[in-house]
Amino acid sequence: MSNSVLFISYDGLLDPLGGSQILPYLHSIRQHPRPLHILSYEKPARFKAGGELLKAELASSGIGWTPLSFTTRFGRLGKLWDLSRMYEVALYLQFKHRFGVIHCRSYQAMQVGALLRKLTGVKVLFDMRGLWVDERVDGDIWKLDNSIDASIFKLYKRVEGSLLLSASHIVALTERVVPELYKLSPDMSAPISVIPCCADFEHFILPTAKQRMATRKELGLPENAFVLSYLGSLGTWYMLEEMLQLFGQAATERKDVHFLLITKDWREEHEALIIALGLSHLRTRIHVHEAKRDQVPSYIGCSDLMLSFIKPAYSKIASSPTKIAEALAVGLPVVSNAGIGDIDDMTARLKAGAVIDLDKPDSLSDIVSSLDSLKKMGGPNLRARAKSELDLHVAELSYKKIYEQLEQTL
Q1: Whether residue 341 is found in the same domain as residue 379
Q2: InterPro entries from the xrefs (predicted)?
């Protein structure tokens, strides 16, 4: 089955990331048309809640799925166990179905893909999604002053080079990371395609004025407020403190400014941060809401400007935040901090908002004084400009071309 694909992911289809970044692409692969089977790791609670429904949906689209249970305990031993099972099940599936292409999402999957290529000669697409090894260090997950972590880092840097060397084709998210890949694996010969994180423009639609007002009412936002928004997790990489500082400056100068945080991660520590920043008197103008995927377009679409501040680090040259594509799809300008992936160039090219250097003392004040002009960048024209680069259909065509190239060499 030279045109069939085995897609391997350590991320779950039922994770929030699965709904926004994985499933839309998988459905497009199947529509090429191209036989598709998925091997993924699912969190037990999420699988119990939605696994059977998703399995039925995938089956109705002709997509096979082998979900494995993500190990939530035992630390690194649990991860090693998961990886060993990934090897075992992927080998079984490959020998059973003889897939023509193995599509490996990130490093764990590519470790398995490299072995499958060595054993069977199958073509392997390494969909990197970022510099995973350096992200572990930059995110303070691996601490290089710890001898064990330092040894693991050195080992995985060697593994990283071998994975790039084993790939038949490589997908990166940004142009900025491409020269780094050649430094990591100077002898690699695989072609590299850059496909940024895109959004489904059929799902993320431009809201009408009536819809914006209805959503504001639902979320407790004043009808005439200037709404800053943030979408997503509040974990390792996201600079909530700086975003709150920007809101604080804006809200002090303007009584109409409110901050909408669309996240499932709000904790007591975040309330403590508001107090520590001296923003307690503005707490009634900070609105925190969870959102299901179907609600996200209207929630972000009711705001005037999105904030996306991400911890700057070496590994972030490879990052392409999905939230930015989703914001632009609903015509929402974005303020980002400099140095993250290709965002600097993309923002200027698409006239999509502003990029600021957070190390400069006046950077936040400059944005506060520009709020109204930034808002005017939004709307249908912004959506149209972004659609040509960041619509899911653009990514679909890119992946289709890659598959066709791989299949021609089988």
Answers
A1: yes
A2: Glyco_trans_1, Glyco_trans_4-like_N
User: Is there a single domain that holds both residue 282 and residue 217?
Assistant: yes
β-sheet with 334-337: strand ranges across? 286-289, 257-262, 226-231, 305-308, 334-337, 353-356
Encoding tokens for residue 230? 């943030």
Residue type present at position 165: L
The total number of residues shown for the chain amounts to 410
pTM metric for this prediction: 0.93
Residue 76 confidence (pLDDT) above 90: no
Query: What are the φ and ψ backbone dihedral angles of 14, each rounded to 5 degrees?
Result: -90, 0
Element (DSSP H or E) covering residue 36: strand 36-42
Q: What is the pLDDT of residues 86-97, one digit of tens each?
A: 999 999 999 999
Is residue 204 a part of any domain in this protein? Answer: no
The answer to whether 113 and 166 are in contact (CB under 8 A) is yes
Q: How far apart are CA 177 and CA 174, in angstroms?
A: 6
Beta-carbon-side half-sphere exposure of residue 127 (alpha carbons within 13 Å): 23
Q: Do residues 258 and 222 lie in contact, with contact meaning Cβ atoms separated by under 8 Å?
A: yes
Q: Residue range 160-185: average pLDDT?
A: 97
Same domain, 123 and 27: yes
Helices 240-253 and 268-276, axial angle in degrees (round to 10): 50
Distance CA 270, CA 241 (A): 9
Ordered DSSP codes for 296-311 = HHHHHHTSSEEEE-B-
The parent domain of residue 191 ranges over 5-198+392-408
Residues 367 and 400 in one domain: no
Give yes or no for residue 66 having a pLDDT over 90: yes
pLDDT band (50, 70, 90) for residue 1? low
- The total of structural domains in the chain comes to 2
CB 27 within 8 A of CB 59: no
Q: Are 244 and 279 in contact (CB under 8 A)?
A: yes
Residue 233 has pLDDT above 60, yes or no: yes
Q: Are residues 293 and 399 in the same domain?
A: no
189 and 219 housed in the same domain: no
Residues 145-154 pLDDT 10s: 999 999 999 9
Residues 316, 267, single domain; the answer is: yes
Query: The CATH number of the domain where 303 resides is what?
Result: 3.40.50.2000
pLDDT in tens, 340-364: 999 999 999 999 999 999 999 899 9
